[in-house]
Amino acid sequence: MPNTLVLSYYKVLLKGLKENFPERGDLFKELIKKNVSDIKFTFSPKVYQQLKYFKNHPISQYTKIHLEIFKEFYPTYDIFQPDVEISILKIDPKGQKAIYRFRNSVFLENNEDYIYHLYFMCGLTEGILEREIHREVKCEVENYHVGGGKEDSYFDISITIK
Known about the structure:
Blueprint: H1 3-20, H2 25-34, H3 45-56, H4 63-73, E1 85-91, E2 97-103, H5 116-133, E3 137-145, E4 154-161
Helix pairs in contact: 2-5, 3-4
């Protein structure tokens, strides 16, 4: 099935969830996180090796490594956005929390209809990272802006490793 057709089905689902369950993004985040083991992922050996750094090192200690790991890691499970641009906005002084900005998202082109995708991805991120690094992880939607197109829109997601 072509990716564009699957994407359109997914967008209809996201829009319907938002219309019928407004302000419930966190609920769907938790549902995805609880069921992440049912999703079959394949990571390259390089990504698995890099994930080991998360286990023993605070984010600020290896800022560039963590950013690069996340930039490689994220597209493996957000299949609709291989061209999403990821940059780091902030790292807390303790090195436990980083805020990432995502641009060029197909889910924030000119409206908020598909905003629940962000919560789905936070649930996936928490579930996958907790499973792989055996530490508590929190992933939160910090902020988002919908502009006139995907080039003008962005969303910010934080990852906290405890």
